[in-house]
Amino acid sequence: MATSNLTSELPPLPAYTLRPLPPLISGLADCYVQMALPVIGYWTVSLIFHVIDVYDLFPKQRLHTPAEVLKRNHVSRWEVFRDVVVQQLVQTAVMLCMAYLDEVPMHGKADYDVAWYAQKLRLAQRAIPYLLATVGLDSSALAASMSASQPMFAGAVSGGRYPGLLQQATIEGEQTLVPAFAPWELAVARVLYYYAIPAVQFFLGFIVLDIWEYFWHRAMHMNKWLYVNIHSRHHRLYVPYAYGSLYNHPVEGFILDTLGTGVGYLILGMTMRQSFFYFTFCTIKTVDDHSGYHFAWDPLQFIFPNNAAYHDIHHQSWGIKTNFSQPFFTFWDRVGGTMYMGDVAERYERARRTAQQKLEQEQDNNTVAESAKNTMASVPELDATARSQPISAPRSSRKKASSISQSSAGNLKGLTNKVNESLHGRRASVLGMDSSH
């Protein structure tokens, strides 16, 4: 049980009793919701973008063509899926450890906290008379003139003095009258407590994550060992797609993603239920940044300057040493001199043409190879047909029969040679195209 603090002329803070917080979902502890929501958010948004990909619903908003996805990436979709699942298992294990070490979430202090903010508002009002005096206004006269029509405004102008606002309170076992909060003070305090302070925490959490990601990400590019042994795996995706956003080496996934958001959560003192939104939002933002689509109406891409188009440059061979900032702002790229400043339109167009040419050449090679295979399969049939032809010759002359037999054998040999020449010619063509490819 915590007792109230009494300060002269200030409304007292109420007493409170802490109790274990009931789970948000009956029968399921909040820590399990904390683990599940980022994973659910990741695959839900990834599935939406995957459907858009498969059915090519927004071709004009694509940053890369389907041909580029097929020809430029150096890792299969199955390998990407597998490694993402591994990272999410590591992430879940870390969150489980955090839940085990964290204190049990409690509640029952909200009214006390709201009153604490209301007290600070009452104290801040004491500066109003001095501020009015700097512009030549008499706060006492102004308050007196408005006390009848606007008593709350008059109380604020007079420095937070509300003589008519009283409440009963038990102090040392006795009932007594003490100052009370104005309704507007409590209303503003509730807005601060329930909305403004969490919004500031989230915003600062984004900044903490950006700082963490930028300097670790930059280090993994500037340090050769870190890049070759750890970060290069993520860059097998030259053409990113949504569910490949967490395709990383497990060490990188732990350092950049799991620890990055965890540090923001701990430094800013977020509650577990605040972390539901913080972790899930950061995860969805990362998926959106790797989606491969630039949507003007996407709120994540509209609000934040660091978006899919910005980060995609970093995945290209010509932009790999730039645009390290992730996932919200571009401030650190500007400060660190790592923002890509060149024109990207021609580079993207050249990559599209090259990928399309490779795809068409591969299709042509497959067509020629299939044709050669079919021709080879037809040789035994031609040979069997030739062998089954009956040779009719009179037996009256041994010399004539021998001549006819030699003629038939010659015809068969000629047919076989002709087919073989055709086959060899086609094979040479196939090999020639393969070698050029």
UniProtKB/TrEMBL annotation:
GO MF terms held by the record: iron ion binding; oxidoreductase activity
Q: Which residues form a coiled coil?
A: 345-372
An example Gene Ontology biological process: lipid biosynthetic process
What Pfam families has UniProt attached to this entry?
FA_hydroxylase (PF04116)
Q: Which GO terms describe its cellular component?
A: membrane
Q: Provide the protein's localization.
A: Membrane
Q: So where does this one cross the membrane? A: 32-52, 192-215
Ranges for the region named Disordered are 375-437
- Fatty acid hydroxylase domain mapped to chain residues: 202-338
- UniProt entry keywords in alphabetical sequence: Coiled coil, Membrane, Transmembrane, Transmembrane helix
**Know the name of this protein?**
Fatty acid hydroxylase superfamily-domain-containing protein
Record the organism: Massariosphaeria phaeospora
Lineage start: Eukaryota, Fungi, Dikarya, Ascomycota, Pezizomycotina
